[in-house]
Design a protein that fits this description.
heterodimer; A: 102 residues; alpha+beta; three-stranded mixed β-sheet; 5 strands; 14% helix; B: 405 residues; alpha/beta; five-stranded mixed β-sheet; four-stranded parallel β-sheet; 14% strand
């Protein structure tokens, strides 16, 4: 079992914060919208029930980043997240479990 | 012909029953097993196995599922769904009734495109010929115009909230659809074929087809042919058979668009013997999609044709997801500049890069469709695109272009 990022494409407004926050996982296209790096994206894989914002990734800013499933490397993200300015409009990312068997 | 009427006009209930007999009273499990064994694949575009889809809904439903018969044919080059609904509405209704029984659904919705007025009228008249218990749990919903309103999550969203824009998945409609209930969204041709299989058995369906392919299907053939229109084929018939069915090619043809705006270009000479069958085409990196076959005349520039398709697709974005809104319109703009031989430096490199970045980056597959189409064009019309970046069209020679300008 591995983690995969899942992005709420409708809510994402292309502020590009996720790319700054998680450059090892996400690059940005010419308009600031996230591209999940190869091997991490599994479109169409069902996520589990929405467990709401992950405390490590949402420093009181609403649903900027959400998790479904278990996060890896939470410490690094918490440090990065704590420096975040408040976004004008929040995008949303979900970290979903994927199944290697599929 | 099973799906295309031999006589003009709409088939009435009596004629339909005379042709096929009464609706078979198969138990749910047996019907789904028949469909699975038949190998029937969906005809809305994705080619998903129909039996497996019905089983997925049946397993989630507790008698409260919904059937949404998808007759919103937004694809500009496709006519087969509206033709089928107009000619043989009772076959589509039989398919929807059988689906409802198989998956445990009370409600049936016929979701019919706004532009398909004759098809909607035929369905309405056909339903009026059915008994009251059928009419009571059936309704017709007119889908708004537009390419995207036939996308399955958009269809469910429209029925639920009057908004025909796609929604995030999961949940997919089979998990949570109309009124939050498990919903089978199934293309009308797929339903008609399911009804034929229920009437005649999977062995009948598997006995049709050429080579390894099994079954029958509808194509909409257009472009440089003598008789454009909807044609029924046995799957596995070749591209040359499709051209022959449409009265033969008219003039020189170099490329063919397969699967419609959501499909891709193919070189005609390479693919002349291509079996028209979803698995065979997938193995060659092509798609049967909704059965569109459009022959491009040799004197039409592939870059210009692609620019028109891309401009249309960009215009049809639901404008919800950034990669679709900005990515598709940027690709369409650059392709249009190349087509009109006024490119900016690096336009060709940019569309190569952008078309490789869009897949899987929207709530629905609309951006994926545009990216796939453009990538196929960059391959099939590679020399033309390179020429246009140098402001030179290889198709239309200079004197001719001056003459028509």
């Amino acid at each position: 079992m591995s983690d995969a990022l899942q992005i709420d494409r409708i809510r994402c407004d292309g502020h590009g914060l996720c790319g700054e926050l998680l450059p090892e996982l996400i690059s940005l296209d010419d308009w600031g919208y996230p591209i999940i790096k190869a091997g991490l994206s599994r479109p169409g894989v069902a996520a589990g029930p929405d467990r709401g914002p992950h405390p490590a990734l949402t420093p009181g800013l609403g649903p900027l980043l959400e998790t479904v499933g278990e996060l890896r490397e939470p410490r690094r993200r918490r440090e990065a997240g704590s420096r975040l300015p408040r976004p004008a409009v929040g995008g949303s990312i979900e970290v979903a479990e994927t199944f290697n068997a599929m | 012909m099973e799906l295309i009427a031999s006589a003009p006009g709409t088939e009435r209930l009596a004629a339909h029953r005379q042709r096929l007999g009464p609706l078979p009273a198969l138990p749910s499990g047996e019907l789904i097993a028949q469909l699975e064994t038949s190998g029937l694949l969906g005809r809305g575009g994705a080619g998903f196995p129909v039996g497996r889809k019905w089983r997925a809904v049946a397993e989630r439903a507790a008698g409260d599922a919904v059937v949404l018969a998808n007759g919103a044919e937004g694809e500009p080059l496709s006519l087969k769904d509206r033709s089928l609904m107009e000619a043989r509405p009772h076959l589509v209704i039989d398919g929807a009734l059988l689906a409802a029984r198989a998956i445990g659904a009370n409600d049936i919705i016929f979701y019919v495109g706004l532009e398909h007025a004759k098809a909607e009228a035929a369905l309405r008249h056909a339903l009026a010929e059915r008994p009251g218990d059928v009419r009571g749990r059936t309704r017709i919903v007119t889908a708004p115009a537009g390419y995207i309103s036939g996308e399955e999550s958009a269809a469910v969203h429209y029925v639920n909230a009057g908004d025909a824009r796609p929604t995030n998945t999961p949940p997919r409609p089979f998990e949570r659809g109309v009124a939050g209930r498990p919903t089978l969204v199934q293309n009308v041709e797929s339903l008609a074929l399911a009804a034929l299989i229920a009437h005649r058995g999977h062995a009948w369906y598997r006995g049709l087809g050429h080579g390894h392919a099994r079954g029958i299907g509808l194509l909409t053939v257009s472009g440089a042919v003598n008789h454009a229109g909807v044609h029924e084929i046995e799957l596995g018939a070749t591209l040359s058979d499709a051209a022959a069915a449409a009265g033969g090619l008219r003039g020189d043809v170099r490329a063919v668009l397969l699967g419609g705006y959501f499909g891709g270009w193919a070189d005609l000479h390479e693919q002349w013997g291509l079996p028209l069958d979803a698995p065979s085409m997938r193995a060659r990196g092509l798609a049967l999609g909704c059965g569109v076959v459009h022959f491009l005349p040799s004197d039409t520039c592939g870059v210009e044709a692609t620019a028109r398709l891309m401009t249309y697709l960009a215009s049809q974005s639901a404008r919800q997801c950034g990669p679709c809104v900005f990515g598709l319109s940027a690709m369409a703009g650059a392709t249009q500049r190349l087509a009109s031989q006024s490119p900016q430096p690096g336009d060709l490199d940019r569309i190569v890069r952008w078309s490789g970045q869009l897949t899987g980056r929207g709530a629905c597959r609309h951006p994926d469709g545009g990216a796939t189409l453009l990538q196929s064009a960059l391959e099939v019309f590679a020399d033309d695109f390179a020429g246009h970046q140098r402001r030179r069209c290889l198709t239309i020679s200079e004197p001719e272009r001056v003459a028509v300008a």
